[in-house]
Specification:
This protein is an alpha+beta fold. The protein is built from 21 helices and 22 strands. It binds adenosine-5'-diphosphate (ADP).
């Protein structure tokens, strides 16, 4: 009996006190384990990949720390991961001589869930019932807890590097785990690192077989840069058989690497479980020497919009892992995964010093250029594949349009846009090739969603002239368009700002007699504009006749010189203050506007005011904003609707 035995309620995250020996799992771990324990996953052999991956990470981390603290390296000089079985006890052990875990780390790491991918797995698994989610598990990679697919009891014995004490974590994967100090005899079996021992379920005894283990290691873990050995006893003597090639994958020649090996490496290094959409693998020689093995994921990773914007490319120096989140690539390439391994950066560099290291800066520059040129090649060679990639990461890549002036043109070359001409992705070069006679600018409309943009009245005058308009619905669009100088000598121009001069671009078709009618009512409409200006003195900075509108009665635009309507609205929301008062443009040939002009003749009337407000409110609604006063809007609308029904 252990003293101070305290049991936390199952499902409740444990708060560790020094003397506790029993802990409940965090609620999410308990949910995850329930799925693991009660399901028969067809891909359950991936538990071995997950445990080996953890062991390799632990070796990487110790190797890095030992550069500055060599005293941590007591015992074995060579890093390795060792598999062994006990056929009688029906156990499989996975041992590593890496960094190990302290008591507190065992509690934190093996009782809670840190990775967002696991949370996504839980959500996906719970949506489907029973066996449906089985095939998905390999995609999510549930880490350590996957061992409960094959084991009904698991023991983790761990010694933090440099520490005298060893702890034993034990769990049946049900409600929680026990944690004790290891006995002397147990401690002696772990000179350094961690041993995970699995008591295999009766239907999982295949994993006692050396051949089967060798097959799984070759399939998923061959790329691991440390030795993975199978340890057996023959005539009382220990025998080790190496199961993997144990050479860093990125140092091997491309022709010697299979697609599957790339994929497994991507999963290990990227912490992702799809397949790479693009693989970039080369060795740079010359002033600086380094290996690059980078991947673009096929599916947008869960942390893509993590506000810290941290990159996830692993930096190695001469095969030694330095850090997993060095900002070795710019933030707008943060979706890339993989490894950069330098021959020239000093090994003892600290993560902080990396930022000022000239070699790191040179690598950053060259690799960024290379990635952009590879993306361009893909865009030229495989349109569909590139467009998928752009759908996933375009919004992130576009951050580079204002963060990386040096490569803005290169980014413009690969950028793809939705436009008012159909549903296809369009390149700026396509846009420029389709300019209409007399068109001197690249027109754009920015807003919150593509659907809303497509319904914008401001587009009408452009459609009538066959002029294409870029539809920008990513938040980042509002920022790069204002700083971009243009593309191919053509400036970007918002269609919701200033007075648009479309007169130089001919209409696709002109209706007979339209001109005469225009002149006839021009005076009345001009008078109407004056009246509206007085009525909306607090709301608008101007009212004028529109060339943008064809089918709609009115729209709002921004005055010239300031931000356009899209950016103006964002700035208003951010500052909480009212922004620049917009301009109301009215369509002189629309019957509603003409009726309003009629109602405005003579002395002031409530009908005129109400109709004018309806006109302004509908222009607001078309921009995705609410009417100024929703209750009054409803009253006014009902008044005219009922009037029409009588
Ligand atoms: P992940 O590896 O994605 O973080 P896991 O559930 O597999 O998720 O592991 C959780 C954490 O437990 C790891 O991040 C690591 O800190 C720790 N851990 C797991 N296995 C080991 C090990 N063999 N040696 C050292 N730390 C480990």
């Amino acid at each position: 009996m252990t003293k101070n035995k305290t049991a936390d309620k199952p499902g409740k995250a444990s708060r560790a006190r020094a003397g506790d020996t029993r802990f409940g799992f965090q609620a999410e771990v308990a949910r995850l384990l329930q799925i693991m324990v009660h399901s028969v996953y067809s891909e359950r052999e991936i538990f071995l990949r997950e445990l080996i991956s953890n062991g390799a990470d632990a070796c990487d981390r110790l190797r890095y720390q030992a550069i500055t603290s060599p005293e941590l390296l007591t015992g074995d000089a060579e890093y390795s991961i060792t598999l062994s079985v006990d056929a009688e006890a029906k156990t499989l052990s996975i041992a590593d001589n890496g960094i190990g875990m302290s008591r507190a780390e065992l509690i934190d790491n093996l009782g809670t869930i840190a990775r967002s991918g696991t949370k996504a797995f839980l959500d996906a698994a719970e949506k489907k019932s029973g066996g449906d989610s089985l095939s998905a598990i390999g995609q999510f990679g549930v880490g350590f807890y996957s061992c409960f697919m094959v084991a009904d009891r698991v023991e983790v014995l761990s010694r933090k590097a440099g520490s005298k004490s060893v702890h034993m974590w034990r769990s049946d994967g049900a409600t929680g785990f026990e944690l004790d100090k290891a006995s002397r005899a147990q401690a002696d079996t772990v000179p350094r690192g961690t041993v995970v021992t699995l008591h295999l379920k009766s239907d999982a005894r295949d994993y006692l077989d050396e051949q089967e283990l060798a097959r799984i290691v070759r399939r998923y873990s061959d790329h691991i840069a440390f030795r993975i050995d199978f340890l057996s006893l023959k005539d009382g003597k220990e025998e080790r058989r190496q199961l993997n090639s144990a050479s860093a994958l990125w140092t091997r020649a491309r022709k010697d690497i299979t697609e599957d090996q790339y994929k497994e490496f991507y999963r290990h290094a990227g912490g992702l479980f799809d397949a790479p959409a693009l693989t970039i693998h080369y060795k740079a020689e010359g002033r600086h020497e380094y290996h690059v093995l980078l991947f673009v994921p096929a599916v947008a990773p869960f942390d893509l919009h993590d506000p810290s914007g941290k990159g996830r490319v692993r930096l190695y120096v001469r095969r030694v892992f330095i850090t997993g989140d060095a900002d070795i690539l710019p933030a707008y390439l943060r979706f890339m995964r993989g490894v950069i391994d330098s021959e020239d950066i000093p090994l003892n560099i600290s993560r902080e010093m990396l930022q000022n290291n000239p070699v790191a800066a040179a690598i950053r520059k060259a690799v960024t250029n290379r990635v952009l040129s590879e993306l361009k090649t893909l865009a030229e060679k495989d349109k569909d594949k590139f467009e998928d990639l752009w759908s996933n990461f375009g919004a992130v890549l576009k951050e580079g349009l204002y963060e990386d002036m040096e490569r803005r043109d290169a980014l413009f070359e690969i950028a793809r846009f939705r436009t008012s001409n159909g549903d296809a992705w369009r390149a700026l070069s396509d846009y420029v090739a389709g300019l209409k006679p007399g068109q001197t600018a690249i027109y754009y409309l920015a807003g919150e969603s593509l659907e809303q943009l497509r319904g914008s009245p401001q587009l009408e005058g452009f459609a009538a002239r066959g002029v294409e308009v870029l539809l920008l619905s990513d938040a980042v669009d509002n920022f790069w368009v204002t700083t971009a100088l243009g593309f191919d000598g053509k400036p970007f121009q918002s269609i919701t700002q200033g007075e648009t001069d479309l007169s130089a671009i001919p209409l696709l078709e002109t209706k007979e007699g339209e001109k005469g009618a225009d002149e006839k009512i021009a005076l009345e409409i001009a008078a109407l504009a004056g009246k509206l200006k007085t009525l909306f003195a607090d709301e608008l900075s101007d009212v004028r006749l529109s060339v943008r509108l064809v089918g709609s009665p009115a729209c709002l635009v921004a005055p010239a010189g300031g931000p356009d309507r899209g950016l103006g609205k964002i700035l208003e929301q951010q500052s909480g203050k009212g922004g620049v008062r917009p301009v109301l443009e009215i369509n002189p040939s629309h019957p509603l506007v003409q009726a309003l002009a009629e109602a405005g003749k003579g002395k002031a009337s409530a009908d005129f005011d109400d109709l004018a407000w309806l006109l302004l409110d509908q222009a607001r609604i078309l921009e995705g904003a609410p009417p100024r006063n929703p209750a009054k809007f409803a009253q006014r609308m009902n008044k005219f609707v009922l009037g029409g029904l009588k």
